[in-house]
Specification:
Blueprint lengths: L2 E2 H8 L3 H9 L7 E2 L5 E3 L1 H15 L4 H10 L3 H37 L23 H7 L1 H13 L2 H23 L7 H14 L7 H13 L1 H10 L3 H16 L2
Antiparallel strand pairs: 1-3, 2-3
Helix pairs in contact: 3-5, 6-7, 8-9, 9-12, 10-11, 10-12
Pfam family, one: TipAS
Keywords: Activator, DNA-binding, Transcription, Transcription regulation
GO molecular function: DNA binding; DNA-binding transcription factor activity
Length: 253
């Protein structure tokens, strides 16, 4: 049985325009094209489209998806590999849900006059976060820096990662206090905190002015990171981004 591109779009939720694009780049070629120019898809193409959509849900780019599919010629084994990825992602999201729920409860407790335990264990703010989702973008833009960063990160022991998370959390709270005091982002006190932040980043890699600004934009625009900053104080993600930009303009090439 064959389905038209309109049928496939209706069933999958993928637009006809996207399906045509997948055809143009060789990611999903129709089983045949009729004399009327219509694309027709059969079961094999539908299974491949399912794999593409699964990998898109796992935040892979189209070129990465093409590489993954090229390596898996056995459909069952390919689905098993995708299933393992989905289970890992499900477990990560479950941990993240718990993290956010715990922070909400602790913020509500603080409003009631109770202590906020995340201050005692600030690394809890970051439990369940997957920073590897930025790897492809960073590797493409700054390949040598990405290699240096990965090499340094891989050399760290678990207790080193926990210590660095605590340091990051502590700095977020200090920045929040400066923001609450309406301290301008180019004030020496703010810039001193950003200098600490920059030097911490330099343990992994040494950003240029453009790269450091890009990092600030990522922290302020990525949903997970922005939520983490703004749970400490609403608006902190943007404040931190602007302070990083001011530092880059004043201190970096």
């Amino acid at each position: 049985m064959a389905w038209t591109i309109a049928d496939v779009a209706r069933m999958s939720g993928v637009t006809s325009r996207t399906l045509r694009h997948y055809d143009e780049i060789g990611l999903l070629t129709p089983a045949r094209v009729g004399s009327n120019g219509y694309r027709y898809y059969e079961e094999e193409e539908l299974l491949r489209l399912q794999q593409i959509l699964v990998l898109r849900e796992l935040r892979l780019g189209l070129s990465e998806i093409a590489d993954v599919l090229a390596k898996h010629t056995d459909e069952v084994e390919a689905l098993r590999a995708h299933h393992r990825r989905l289970v890992d992602e499900r477990d990560r999201l479950a941990t993240l849900v718990t993290t956010v729920a715990r922070t909400i409860a602790e913020l509500e407790n603080r409003k009631d006059g109770s202590d906020m335990t995340n201050l005692d264990e600030p690394e809890n703010l970051f439990e369940g976060f997957d920073t590897t989702r930025y790897d492809a973008d960073a590797r493409q833009k700054w390949p040598q820096e990405w290699e240096d960063s990965k090499r340094f990160s891989d050399s760290l022991a678990p207790e080193d990662h926990e210590r660095m998370q605590r340091e990051t959390s502590a700095q977020m709270f200090r920045m929040a206090e400066l923001m609450e005091a309406d301290t301008p982002v180019d004030d020496p006190a703010v810039q001193a905190e950003i200098d600490v932040h920059y030097r911490g980043i330099c343990k992994f890699w040494t950003p240029t002015a453009a790269a450091y600004k890009h990092l600030g934009e990522t922290l302020a625009s990525d949903a997970q990171w922005k939520a983490t900053y703004d749970r400490v104080r609403p608006g902190l993600a943007d404040y931190h981004r602007d302070a990083m930009a001011a530092y880059a303009d004043a201190q970096l090439d």
